[in-house]
């Protein structure tokens, strides 16, 4: 068989000497192993091209370095080793390596009262980089929850009081009549507005495991009214009660999350952003809080 030499354009010299900050591939399909389950993820893999005289990087070497994710459980060590491999396969060319993994993490959540359960989807991204031998990992997760406006609740209560004064102005009060009135929409004339809300958490991981489930649980416990999966009427009623006891502005939600993340000793720094998709307005109410986090970014 004649052996054919394949042209290697990437290895050619470059006429314009210009280093590049990031070169690689985006949207690579990649199965991950997380908590014993296979998860369909996408990877963006890249390196810096510091040697501006080289035309290109070797994309296939980054691609092939990702193969281990299929067999090994996702861990900080695996991310670190992979980035190390990116750089080792680009000696003389690159000093910085980057890997972003994005996937949906599914958790089974029980109903509040009924014996039902269902799956909840949490979009996740993991950004790892190796720069000057320093390894950094940022975990980002989006957590939906429900929030009821405390101001709207107070305004609604005032209207209900006014209606009570009107309806019972000249009447002697009987327990039964009041009870009936409380159960009628003619009595409870106003309801506060609630909104589906979103907490966007970004945390810098110190050494240890990627404790994704623990992070989500801590955030949902702090928020109090996570959105539900399987719901019967009994669950909906319990949810209405939980919301009535858990009124919050976006500022309240951001402060609660700040305190909850601060308690996690494996979190080296964080950025919290909450978005309340208001039903009062066509715009959102938003609050942010950070700790050991650069102001921008
Ligand atoms: N650098 C670079 N490569 C690209 C690009 N688009 C496609 N490729 C292709 O990616 C393929 C893999 O490149 P390399 O990793 O250098 O492949 P290779 O030379 O067979 O592998 P090595 O011998 O390990 O260098 C080549 O066929 C490139 O043409 C691009 O924009 N930049």
TrEMBL record:
The record marks 149 as: May be catalytically important. Its EC number is 3.5.4.16. InterPro entries: GTP_cyclohydrolase_FolE2 (IPR022838), GTP_cyclohydrolase_FolE2/MptA (IPR003801). GO terms for biological process: tetrahydrofolate biosynthetic process. GO terms for molecular function: GTP cyclohydrolase I activity. Keywords: Hydrolase. Pathway: Cofactor biosynthesis; 7,8-dihydroneopterin triphosphate biosynthesis; 7,8-dihydroneopterin triphosphate from GTP: step 1/1. It catalyses: GTP + H2O = 7,8-dihydroneopterin 3'-triphosphate + formate + H(+). NCBIfam families: PRK13674.1-1. Converts GTP to 7,8-dihydroneopterin triphosphate. Belongs to the GTP cyclohydrolase IV family. This is GTP cyclohydrolase FolE2. It comes from Pseudomonas xantholysinigenes. The lineage of its organism: Bacteria, Pseudomonadati, Pseudomonadota, Gammaproteobacteria, Pseudomonadales.
């Amino acid at each position: 068989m004649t052996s054919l030499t394949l042209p290697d354009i990437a290895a050619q010299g470059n006429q314009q000497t210009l280093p590049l900050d990031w070169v690689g591939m985006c949207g690579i399909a990649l199965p991950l192993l997380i908590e014993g389950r296979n998860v369909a993820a996408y990877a963006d893999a890249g390196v810096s091209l510091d040697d501006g005289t080289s035309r290109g990087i070797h994309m296939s070497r980054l691609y092939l370095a990702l193969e281990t994710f299929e067999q090994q459980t996702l861990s900080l060590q695996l991310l670190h080793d992979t980035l190390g491999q990116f750089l080792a396969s680009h000696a003389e060319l690159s000093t910085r390596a980057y890997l972003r993994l994005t996937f949906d993490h599914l958790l089974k959540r029980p109903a509040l009262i009924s014996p039902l359960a269902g799956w909840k989807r949490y979009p996740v991204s993991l950004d790892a980089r190796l720069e000057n031998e320093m390894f950094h990992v940022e975990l980002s997760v989006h957590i939906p929850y429900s929030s009821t406006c405390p101001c709207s609740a107070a305004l609604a209560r005032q209207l209900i009081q006014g209606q009570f004064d009107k309806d019972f102005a000249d009447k002697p009060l009987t327990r039964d009549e009041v009870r009936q009135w409380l159960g009628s929409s003619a009595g409870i004339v106003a309801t506060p507005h609630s909104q589906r809300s979103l907490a966007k958490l970004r945390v810098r991981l110190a050494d240890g495991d990627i404790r994704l489930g623990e992070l989500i649980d801590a955030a949902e416990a702090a928020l109090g009214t996570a959105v539900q999966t399987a719901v019967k009427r009994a669950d909906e009623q319990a949810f209405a009660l939980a919301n009535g006891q858990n009124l919050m502005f976006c500022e309240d939600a951001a402060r609660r999350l700040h305190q909850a993340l601060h308690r996690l000793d494996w979190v080296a720094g964080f950025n919290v952003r909450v978005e309340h998709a208001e039903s009062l307005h066509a715009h959102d109410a938003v609050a942010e809080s950070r700790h050991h986090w650069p102001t921008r970014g």
